[in-house]
Design goal:
2 domains; 3-stranded parallel β-sheet; Ribosomal_uL1_CS; Ribosomal_uL1; about 30% helix; Rossmann fold; alpha/beta; 8 helices; rRNA-binding; Large ribosomal subunit protein uL1; single chain
Length: about 230
């Protein structure tokens, strides 16, 4: 039998049923930190069935401390809007040329934004962008006449949250190198946005469980009192 590492031994002694505060959970995750800068992630188990339209939970939230990630943004725009998107820091801006590029499989983007007049072009990419969650959507602010602001928002720490089939939302809230105050602010922003997005069809307890983890760390259950309005 292989000898356990110090980290494995410590993990074996971890109380899996303990309910942590955010600060306690972050302190614990730092004990298991690896040599690379891990992403801190939140998982929220919700009392919804997203197969029903009135129980879908989806939205955008700006994380006040940013994500620590370089967000790649593509924008469908022409003329002045195209120049504004470039000036705002978009990684790729185009129209039919960008359509062709994406149809050829070049989809290395975290966010796709479009001005309203470009939706005739973008609509042809539904089967390409849809499965990756990249299809521009007016409700999420990714179809907008103000493409420059949408690019700035994406680059500065705005993230999308969307409930998965099993009623769970996963989202990164920064890096372990962030200080506790920065991660706590991002945690509050995300969880508050999810709570405020409670759909009309949700019955019974809405937030069932919240877990905090890092890329290589254990999943730690949080006290639901840490989630505003839970």
């Amino acid at each position: 039998m292989a000898k356990q590492t110090k980290k494995q031994k410590t993990l074996a002694n971890l109380d899996r049923e303990k309910l942590y505060t955010v600060s306690e959970a972050l302190a614990t995750l730092r004990q298991y930190a690896s040599k690379f800068d891990e992403t801190v992630e939140v998982a929220m188990n919700l009392g919804v069935d997203p197969r029903h339209a009135d129980q879908m939970v989806r939205g955008m939230v700006s994380l006040p401390s940013g994500t620590g990630k370089d967000v790649r943004v593509a924008v469908f725009a022409r003329g002045d809007n195209a120049q504004k998107a470039l000036d705002a820091g978009a990684d790729k801006v185009g129209a039919e040329d960008l359509l062709e590029d994406m149809q050829n499989g070049n989809l290395n983007y975290d966010r796709v934004i479009a001005s309203p007049d470009m939706m005739g072009v973008v609509g042809r990419l539904g089967k390409v962008l849809g499965p990756k969650g990249l299809m521009p959507n007016p409700k999420l602010g990714t179809v907008t006449p103000n493409v420059a602001q949408a690019v700035k928002d994406a680059k500065s720490g705005q993230v999308e949250f969307r409930v998965e089939k099993m009623g769970i939302i996963h989202s990164g809230i920064g890096k372990l190198s962030f200080d506790d105050a920065a991660l706590a602010a991002n945690f509050k922003a995300l969880t508050s946005a999810v709570v405020k997005s409670k759909p009309s069809g949700a019955k019974g307890k809405y937030v069932k469980k919240v877990t905090l983890t890092s890329s290589m760390g254990p999943g730690l259950k949080l006290d639901l009192a840490e989630v505003e309005g839970a």
